[in-house]
């Protein structure tokens, strides 16, 4: 069985020990993954530190050209990488374009789109003040070495969000993938690193202890993390001791509010994918749906019809739309939240019980007759379960949406753009979408508020966050 190794200083790093990676659809062992030691984490950071001055010294054009060569290599391996994503993460292969299942091929398409957009951004010097006596120019300089920790839900796409802007800004990177999706991640890093100078992009793999060694390392200049709030809090505490800057995207419990004038049939498909993209295992999925009493049954009926029509199975099988949950921990959490809702008197419209047989399959589940204060409403389920909560007034719906200490995304659904905008202005979230949900874009800043983290990714604002501002002030 193949052992998948880390890339450090442009070369495969030998494995002192390994762990298994499993297919969540079957339990099959896919391969062995190198488990990094503390000394190997040190070596990866040292390689990044040694490579950084020369990488930063390249002109913007030269760095862009090198990154575009790496992205071309990624594009050439997209199908192989998508297959690894399906086998290891669980999402169907799917395709790209209208009518296609947004699965692993969609993830690789997103990787390339985000990478090319980020690579072609520029941060020219900016004259911020000038008069007869002085001229002040703001420059953006690289920070140095970036430590990145990527999650298992979109293992390659989120890693690209971390890697490419950091490299574009002149930094070097050490990335730790999730131990649950290491093979696809290490393979992508290998492909990219082969097209870059040695040491510019390095990887370390293993469990939380390896991530701890990375974020505690004194030679990091910034930490990027996407994951749970609990882990993010530990990273923030560690970073505070060394005054290391962080960007933290810590998930959320996104609320969607359907206004009384909405057309249930017209919005049903977008609501469906807003809630169930990637089996609900997306930070910015709809996790709570607030619907006025007059529209409640029509919205529920429209969603239930779509849910019942979506085939679930192994993502490698043709025609599969929904795959398994990625891991046992998430499966158990989803099951426990649904059982708690049942015990509280909620109605299970469809789904509501694990599918028998191999794999972490939990059916798409729609829950009604549920209210704020129930665990399924108040806790982020991060899975294929959507609670639908009735409301009597828009003010009450807004209050419910804002009551939790998270604020990654939210959405408002209405046929009246002005009315929707007025409600959107009142919602406490990093992004509020109108008549769409989770539709991120590589040029639009994305980040959370409250307990959903701090800092932004994407576009010029995300690129700036990976630089150190420096002012050159000239007396005339």
3D shape: globular
Strand content: 15-25%
How many helical elements? 15
Radius of gyration: 23 Å
CATH superfamily of the largest domain: Aldehyde Dehydrogenase, Chain A, domain 1
Briefly note the structural class of the backbone: alpha/beta
Q: How many structural domains are formed by the residues?
A: 2
Number of strands: 23
Helix content: 25-40%
CATH class identity of the largest domain: Alpha Beta
Major sheet: 7 strands, mixed
- The largest sheet has its strands arranged as 15-16-17-14-13-19-20
CATH topology of the largest domain: Aldehyde Dehydrogenase, Chain A, domain 1
Distance between the termini: 69 Å
Q: What is the arithmetic mean of pLDDT?
A: 97
Second rung of CATH, namely the architecture of the largest domain: 3-Layer(aba) Sandwich
Low-confidence parts, pLDDT < 50 over ≥5 residues? none
InterPro entries: Ald_DH/histidinol_DH (IPR016161), Ald_DH_C (IPR016163), Ald_DH_CS_CYS (IPR016160), Ald_DH_CS_GLU (IPR029510), Ald_DH_N (IPR016162), Aldehyde_DH_dom (IPR015590), LUC3-like (IPR044086)
Keywords: Oxidoreductase
Biased composition (Polar residues): 15-24
Protein name: Aldehyde dehydrogenase family protein
